[in-house]
TrEMBL record:
Keyword Hydrolase recorded: yes
InterPro entries in UniProt: Calcineurin-like_PHP, DNA_Repair-Maintenance_Comp, Metallo-depent_PP-like, Mre11_N, SbcD, SbcD_C
Protein name: Nuclease SbcCD subunit D
Gene, per the UniProt record: sbcD
NCBIfam families: sbcd
Alphabetic keyword roster: DNA recombination, DNA replication, Endonuclease, Exonuclease, Hydrolase, Nuclease
Family statement drawn from the similarity comment of this UniProt entry: Belongs to the SbcD family.
Length: 387
């Protein structure tokens, strides 16, 4: 069976101030062309179909158009909700839409109920594991821990239990939206850390032939059988070196996996340039970036006059301007920035307590701070899921 694996469409999201809806529509066209030209048997979309719980109308219309066109090709599609989606909103009408061959999996209770598709070698069971927010689903899965690994492991236990009831030789594909250990993140994924632990080991997916992952925006293979497709478009300058693509996965009669990486259309290249303003305006080596979306980091010790206006004369698509003045190591601004670099929200809060009180928080106070940050994240997710 030939499966096209994609994820993280983030319909409705902009890139800085650039409306990406046209580029997203271009990707949908490319997806449909690929399905036709490469004789795809099934499409899987591993979450974050939308960028937010209540997407703009234009994004909903684009999604509706994509569903109609996929159904028109007669190629089954399996989709799950991600941490950016409202699972309840995305799942509205799932039963009816499923009759057209578009299978939406947004309910954690259905993790062990597969979509069964058939090819010349028998059945392939597709299990959809929507994004599992630990605080909201731990009762459903009967786990005492509130971590991602616990709930995802419990969901996979249901998958393996169902698969054991299937005829011998039944092949299996799992869709999941999670942060798997070994994956490379970027700046454009929303933090899913709760309780201090977000990553889950790849071994959680043992027992299935292929795990089609979503959440991380860089296309990457954790193992031959556990892969991220990445987002088809860039959503931060940290993705400047990404090669945006999808996985074309072939499952043979025995469940062996062969994967080919297929490039997605590039609306405009990304470039990150750095130097003083005069250097950036004069350097001939930067000519290749003049039509790119640009993030410029200025190292001038004193902020120059009208830097954006001057930069856009040479780089008209400059979208981000960062100031990183080169200063002496003992400069107070430098030392403060270094203290914050790489520190979590909780660590910064603990530093603030130390600064105000003269002594850092004790273990009980650290636990209270962690509970507060976890509660904020869980409340945000609950509001989006119910939104």
């Amino acid at each position: 069976m030939r499966v096209l694996h994609t994820s993280d469409w983030h319909l409705g999201r902009a890139f800085h101030r650039v409306n990406m809806l046209g580029a997203q529509a271009g990707f949908i066209d490319h997806l449909l062309d690929t399905v036709r030209e490469r004789a795809v048997d099934a499409v899987v979309v591993s979450g974050d179909v939308y960028d937010r719980a209540v997407p703009p109308l234009a994004a909903v219309e684009l999604f509706d158009d994509a569903l109609h066109r996929l159904a028109g090709l007669g190629v089954p599609t399996v989709m799950i909700s991600g941490n950016h989606d409202s699972a309840r909103r995305l799942g509205v009408g799932a039963g009816l839409i499923g009759r057209a061959g578009i299978h939406l999996r947004t309910d954690p209770a259905e993790c062990g109920t597969p979509v069964l598709l058939r090819d010349a070698f028998g059945e392939v069971a597709f299990y959809g594991l929507p994004y599992l927010e630990p605080a909201l689903v731990k009762d459903e899965f009967g786990v005492t821990g509130a971590g991602h690994e616990a709930v995802l492991a419990a969901a996979m236990d249901r998958v393996r239990a169902d698969l054991a009831t299937r005829p011998p030789g039944t092949r299996s594909v799992v869709l999941a939206h999670a942060f798997v250990t070994g994956g490379e993140a970027s700046d454009s994924e929303r933090d899913i850390t709760v309780g201090g632990v977000a990553a889950v080991p790849a071994g959680v997916f043992d027992g299935v032939d292929y795990a089609a992952l979503g959440h991380l925006h860089g296309c990457q293979a954790i193992t031959d059988r556990v892969r991220y497709s990445g987002s088809p478009l860039p959503y931060s300058f940290s993705e400047a070196r990404h090669r945006k693509s999808m996985w074309l996965v072939d499952l043979d009669a025995d469940g062996a996996v062969t994967a080919e990486r297929l490039d997605c259309p590039v609306p405009r290249p990304l470039a990150r340039i750095r130097g003083t303003l005069e250097e950036l305006l004069a350097d001939p080596e930067l000519a290749r970036h003049e039509e790119a979306w640009v993030e410029a980091t200025l190292t001038d010790p004193v902020r120059p006059a009208e830097p954006m206006a001057r930069l856009t004369e040479r780089f008209p698509h400059t979208l981000s301007l960062v100031f990183a003045p080169e200063r002496a190591p003992d400069d107070p601004d430098v030392s403060y920035a270094r203290r914050l670099a790489g520190r979590s929200d909780r660590q910064i809060a603990e530093d603030f307590v130390t600064h105000v009180r003269g002594a850092g928080p004790d273990e009980r106070e650290r636990a209270v701070l962690q509970e507060a940050f976890d509660a904020v994240r869980a409340d945000r997710t609950a509001r989006e899921v119910s939104g």
